[in-house]
Amino acid sequence: MNRHSFGGFPPTSVDRAWYGVQAPEGSSVGDQLKFQFVHDFHNTLGDVRLLFMPDGADTTTNSDLGVDGVTWTYDATVAGNLTRLGSGMYWSTDGTADEADTPDDTRHSFGDSTLDGPFSVGALVRVTAGTVVQDILSKYSAATGAELREWRFGIDASEFLFLECWDESANAAIGRRFATALAVDTWMLVVGVYRGTRVADGIDLYLYDGTTRAVVDNTDQNTLTYVAMENLTSVTKLASSQGASAITGFWAGDIAMVWLTASAPTSSALWAIRSLVNSYFDLNV
User: Fold this and answer.
1) CATH code: domain of residue 185
2) pLDDT (tens digit, 9 = 90+) per residue, 220-229?
3) Which of 120, 141, 157, 216 is most solvent-facing, going by the fewest CB within 10 Å?
4) Taking the complete model, does pTM exceed 0.90, yes or no?
């Protein structure tokens, strides 16, 4: 289901009242609900470059629901690791090997070495406590002698949420983090928004976990003198990043949805996304 699929089923033909019916994907009503959710998601955020939603039929690949319809390749079959959540699915990762990637794409880059453009990255996840960084989505390679760092979104070893942007040539970074550990074993919507301002204050982090529903970033995460991100060639990774010599930063919890947009959504738009997520996944984040 990519940008070409909507012509096969007009999303507006689905009654919004059906959002209250938790029909599973693969059923007639469930598939219609998924079309409607994806349509409304795109309509709310605009220019959705990536929208990963695990599908019950996934084995070794996933068809992304962003405008470009890229393919995600899992490290191994996910059969047996997918569980229903409302009308959607979630992927349980082991924190040691489970991850996915899609090839380098200039549409996943947001800097030209002089200026940055806005972007947002968000996810519906459930956190498992760990002792290392856990990446949700990254375009970031720290391979020794061949570093290609652009941006990464995840939690650190203390379960502090962060979004950071890198200027590879200057070995410099800007970022923001939420210096409070995220709740474990709790479904939450986490979002990073960068307005392209080339300073840390241009980054906002949002948390919706049923208790907190607000901008939460409170700490700068800066290194040296940052100018802008660069359009480099690292792959885009889901639930991991590339370390000095091997893949690292494996996510150790559950993932139901991850997105990347070339926009800086307002708090009102994100509140609308929260409502869509609650309806489709039968949650109260």
Assistant:
1) 2.60.120.200
2) 999 999 999 9
3) 157
4) yes
